[in-house]
Amino acid sequence: MTRVRIFASGEMDRDSVRRVEVDGVALCVVRLESGRYHAIRDVCTHHAIRLSRGDLIGDNIECPAHSSMFNVITGAVTGLPATEPVQAYVVDETDGSISVEIPDGALGLVEPDHSDDDWGDA
Amino acid sequence: MSSSDVSKESGPATCPVVRVDQFDEALRFDRNRSIVNAAEMFAAVHTDPVNGGINVREFLSGAVPFLDGPEHRDRRKMLNRLLRPDALEVIREDMILPAARDYLDRVLADPSADGVARADLVDLCHHTFLRFTAKLIGFIGMDSEEKVTRLSALAGPISAGTSSQFLDDRTAINNAALEAKAQYVDEFFMPALRHAKDLRDQIEAGTIDAADVPVNIMSLIADGADPGYRDQGKSVVETTMMFAAAVGTSTQAIIQTLDFLQDWFAAHPEDRELRTDETFLLNCLIETIRLRAPFSPYNTRMAAEDCEVAGHQLVAGQEVHIERVAANRDEEVFGRDAGEFNPHRADPSHGAQRYGIGFGSGPHQCFGLRVVLGLDGKGGAHLEVLKMLLEAGAEPDPAHPPVDLKKNMDKFSIENIPRYISYPVMFANLTRSA
What we know:
By secondary structure, chain A is mainly β.
């Protein structure tokens, strides 16, 4: 497991979403209304669309394409048509920094992302 | 190559129509950006420029199913808010189920002379889903039975005009559709738009709270929430498309599930006790969607550019038919009895859903999927309506057989896919308990 600093505390507004790329791993980083940070993989398990382009609704992110919903804390599916959960990552806020723990095997891979081209075979 | 057919030709060049009838191929075509949902191709303009042109201009162009690329993506994202979890609950509990219950109660309270209550399920389902669609669009005064009846009279011809290329006597259908559309605009669209704009003005003036105003298609149009909505003609088409997309398919899904169940219970009488079991009924509904949706022989697509998809070389402008009903009978994916209705079917392979590509896949996957399946996939409003009918003992009326729409059967390669325009039922439980 590799801990990666992604940005400084307070850099994100509450109730907002941001895409962060860490050595090939695309993260959908969320700061909830409560102020807590969470991160899930930025790839909808339904059709490989960037979740970070979707809307945050409470603790859920809504995919901009078909409105699949995922809990940003656990990665669990909370709305069809997706049926597979999305990877959730441990996020830590210490000493003014936000860090994410990335499994070592995930680093260096290229994420599928069909947001701007075709819709792939995810 | 199983998915090409040189017996048909399409424009603009004389290229063979590419028939896509294998499951994996259909997924690839659905998800390829070079394959678009062109209104001109759907309306078969190349075979009938006059009627096709009318269809494109008056009933198709500008509606979300016929957008592609970023324009489509932005419109879908904007419309998604109409089917969020809280909205789904309102749709099910406050729109669809009360409408169906009201209609059914009236039927059951007024039996025929022989003491048996009878109804036409097409009328019941049309009425139910028309009221839902009208509220989703944002029409006003739709609690009035008279308004619903009037809208129903207009929605039928408009829906026929939307897909007249699949029907006989296309010119007559288009003429009736144009006349109905003009009345629809005057009686429903314009009053609702004026109402939505008035609400928007009140919100801007601070006299009402935006949170108290329902979000619907008309409010989005009034707000200019999408650049395409600046064109009023295309905004009208967005609303008329809703009738064709929501009312017809919902009606057919419920009726054809009931129809399949008659044969299933005859062959499997032990399952009669499951007739109101929600898991069983959901599987039945999903089997119907797999075998029959989208209740037309194919979805038309077009190659936007020269491209290669799933081993097929296509040229720009070439016509593609995605035969979902055929693709959903792939035995490798759905088992050896893939062509049969089987609510106890094992989960499919290849990562497929039980409904296969009955809702489509890729960018144009059905907008209403969650209305049908529910947020969690355990069943939405359609399941509840089906259960309501079966609890009341609905079964086909042997004295009055169903009536299928007269279609151009040249387009059906697998089998007739019924499009019932009448499906009389009797409510047997009422008779038995009387």
